[in-house]
Structure formats: structure tokens, C-alpha cells
Design a protein that fits this description.
alpha/beta; TIM Barrel; 8-stranded parallel beta barrel; 12 helices; binds ribulose-5-phosphate
């Protein structure tokens, strides 16, 4: 057991200093990667804003049919113009995303639990690298359960996927899971995001929390933020604005888009924040204007 007694508290995050090793390529921490990796990352992070709007619809991998995602075949083509990346399972993407839609693809590759389990932290790598290549995945998403029962196997899954990704230049997205029993403190997210980044992922998905800017500063690769449970639209836009203002490089939102009464307008409003620097207030006004224009049509 490592001697953790008397550890100094980390505090020098230099949150106002930009990431240092950034010459030559715009994606954080990706300077030394090869062309193929950079190409995939450019399919995820817009080269102009440096940010991304990812649309997460992978919930079915453990939740089955989810409110708002009943008909992926109808929903996905309508949202495509307003998001940068589709994040889903290979089953959903192959069956419901027309291949002529030129969006980035974040392929969920870990799986193995369901809502019926008490403990969701035990997963396997369910998609092999050859299928990720066949699907032109721009990144492979692996759930990591730091501090949970399934920590070791999820980090084993993660390292296997990163190793395969390094062989074929496909980035890995480390998804920081939060469970019922797991804390949602900045201490937890600092630990989890940094462990996942040090394992070698090229991007991290996590949640907003107190001192979020410190989590971003201490993470050497870009962070995208999950939306979590459905919030009123104004609050979801506030979440997007807050994390972007604190250094996130985008959002990977699901329920706050697909469970909105107006998913398309919501995706457009989020886009304004992520790519055009709108405040949450401006984006909410934009959202309301879009809805009322729609109602007049
Ligand atoms: C599950 C995921 C989901 O994609 C994630 O939760 C995003 O969706 P939402 O915004 O609905 O939370 O990664 O682990």
C-alpha cells in the first residue's frame, strides 16, 4: 500500500495560464500524436473554435429504450446538422445513422451491465478494434469506475482500448462514471480525470463540480462535460456556459437535448455557447426565439 498519510494538498493549478505544450496543433495534449490521431481529433474538435458539441445517445447500452430515444432512426438525422459528433453504440449507429451523414463518431466500446444490476461498475470491452476501424470511429469511449468495485477491470478495459487505439491511431475517450455510492466532489473528479488522462486517453468526459477550472487545469487533455439528468433548458444552458467559461472544450450531452421538448433548438442554443461564445442568457433568448419562430411556421 502506498504511504498516503501526510500527503500535501495539491493547490498550484495556475488556472489562468494556458496549456504550455501547445505549439503546432490546437487540441490540448495532442502535439506529439501522429497524423491519424490528429485527423480524428479534428473530426471531433472544430478547428476554428477548438471545441465540440457531442450528442450522447448511448444510454441504451445499459438502460435499454430510454425516454426521448425510442426512435433513433427518426431523431438522429434531424439533429445531425446541429452537433459535431454522434456518441453511440455500434448497434445504434450502424442501424440508425445514415452513412452519408458526415459527423464525427464516438463509439461506445465498453459494455456489460444493465439497469437491473445493483452495481453497474463491471464491464468488458465489447467492440474489437477491427470493428472500430470499419466504422471509422473518431474515438472509442470506455467507461471508467474509479473508486468502485469494478475499478480494476474498467482500467484494464481502458488500457486495452488505448493500446489498440495507439496501434491504429484512433483516440480513446475516457468516460468518468459516477455511481450512486460515488462522491461527486472536486477531490473525486481531480483523482478520476487525472488517472484516466495518465492512462493515455486523448480526451476525457466528466461532470461539472465545484472548482471545475482546477480539474480542467490539471488534466493534460481536453475535457468534455456530460449533461446528466434532464434540467430545465435555462439551467442546462447555464451548465454548458459555466463549464465552457471554466475551460471545458465542449459538452457531450444526452438527456438535456433529447428529453427537451425542443431538441433541435436546444442543440442549436448549446452550439452558440460552445462555438460562438454566447452567454447562457443570450443562448436562452436565442432558444426562445427559435421556438417562437417555429410556432409561427
Ligand atoms: C453514460 C454516458 C452518457 O453518454 C452520458 O451520461 C451523457 O448523457 P447525459 O448528458 O444524458 O448524462 O456516457 O455513462
Amino acid at each position: 500500500m502506498a504511504d498516503t498519510d501526510g500527503l500535501k494538498v495539491a493547490k498550484n493549478y495556475h488556472v489562468n495560464e494556458p496549456f504550455a505544450n501547445q505549439d503546432g496543433f490546437y487540441v490540448k495534449g495532442a502535439n506529439s500524436l501522429d497524423w491519424g490521431m490528429k485527423k480524428h481529433l479534428s473530426n471531433i474538435f472544430d478547428p476554428k473554435s477548438g471545441n465540440t458539441v457531442m450528442f450522447a445517445f448511448d444510454h441504451g447500452y445499459f438502460m435499454g429504450s430510454t425516454a426521448g430515444l425510442e426512435r433513433l432512426d427518426l431523431l438522429l438525422p434531424t439533429l445531425a446538422p446541429y452537433v459535431d459528433v454522434f456518441m453511440g453504440t455500434r448497434g445504434a449507429i450502424r442501424s440508425c445513422v445514415p452513412p452519408q451523414i458526415t459527423k464525427g463518431i464516438a463509439l461506445r466500446v465498453s459494455s456489460g451491465s444493465s439497469m437491473l444490476n445493483e452495481d453497474l461498475s463491471h464491464e468488458v470491452v465489447a467492440v474489437d478494434i477491427e470493428d472500430c476501424i470499419r466504422m471509422n470511429a473518431d474515438c472509442m469511449a470506455v467507461q471508467t469506475f474509479i473508486g468502485a468495485d469494478g475499478q480494476l477491470e474498467s482500467l484494464d478495459n481502458l488500457s486495452k482500448v488505448i493500446n489498440a487505439g495507439m496501434r491504429y491511431s484512433i483516440p480513446t475517450l475516457g468516460v468518468v462514471a459516477v455511481g450512486k455510492q460515488m462522491e461527486r466532489t472536486d477531490r473525486f473528479f481531480k483523482l478520476a480525470t487525472r488517472i484516466v488522462a495518465e492512462m493515455g486517453v486523448q480526451l476525457v468526459k466528466t461532470y461539472n463540480c465545484e472548482n471545475f477550472e482546477e480539474i480542467v487545469a490539471a488534466c493534460p487533455v481536453p475535457i468534455v462535460v456530460a449533461g446528466g439528468k434532464k434540467l430545465p433548458e435555462k439551467d442546462a444552458l447555464n451548465l454548458a456556459y459555466t463549464v465552457m467559461a471554466k475551460g471545458a472544450h465542449g459538452v457531450d450531452m444526452g438527456r438535456n437535448i433529447f428529453q427537451s421538448n425542443h431538441p433541435i433548438e436546444m442543440a442549436q442554443a448549446i452550439r452558440k455557447i460552445v462555438h460562438e461564445g454566447y452567454t447562457d442568457t443570450q443562448a436562452y433568448e436565442f432558444y426562445q426565439d427559435m421556438i417562437s419562430d417555429h410556432a409561427k411556421e
